[in-house]
Amino acid sequence: MNLVITMSRRFGTGASLIAKELSEKLGIPVYDKAYIEHEAENTSYKEEGELIRKLAKEPCIILGRCASEILKDQSNVFNVYVSAAKSDRIKRIMEQYSLSEEEAKEKLEKNDKERADYYYEHTGMVWGDVNNYHMILDTSTLGIENCADIMIKYFKKMELI
């Protein structure tokens, strides 16, 4: 099957690391905001949506950009949401960006607000609503290092790969 995985995530959850590992294990590309904004003729939501639909003609992983909503009518799409405890996210952001705890907390809150606003602006829906996803992974509980394997085991069991 032509499996397309969309991955929405809170900032600082480690979702990009999960996507990278999943990409390597499945041999499929990952497309993120930077790639989509670079490849789209302009950064309008409409243009990005057209590019996302084009990319989803082949197996891939798409991080963010409302891909779960853009591709909602495609039966080959599996939507994942990655979350983590706020304290763990702050620690990751502190390490990744060499920030103080207060700076990391501000960056987290700003980023989460921007993502929620972007999602609502373009879909009219609440970002992170569990009803919009097939699987929710909590990296605080499961560990970033286990999430790709959890998904692969599920995909094999369901004969998606």
Fold and architecture overview:
The chain contains eight helices and five strands; from the N terminus they run βαβααβαβααβαα. The chain has 161 residues and is an alpha/beta fold. The chain has a single domain, classed as P-loop containing nucleotide triphosphate hydrolases (Rossmann fold, 3-Layer(aba) Sandwich), CATH 3.40.50.300. The chain has a five-stranded parallel sheet with strand order 2-3-1-4-5. Helix 1 packs across helix 8 (144-157) and helix 5 packs across helix 6. It is globular and about 45 Å long.
List the SSEs and their pairings.
Layout: E1 4-9, H1 15-26, E2 30-31, H2 33-39, H3 45-55, E3 60-63, H4 67-70, E4 77-83, H5 86-97, H6 101-123, E5 135-138, H7 139-142, H8 144-157
Parallel strand pairs: 1-3, 1-4, 2-3, 4-5
Give me some keywords for this one.
Rossmann fold; about 160 residues; about 55% helix; globular; five-stranded parallel beta sheet; alpha/beta
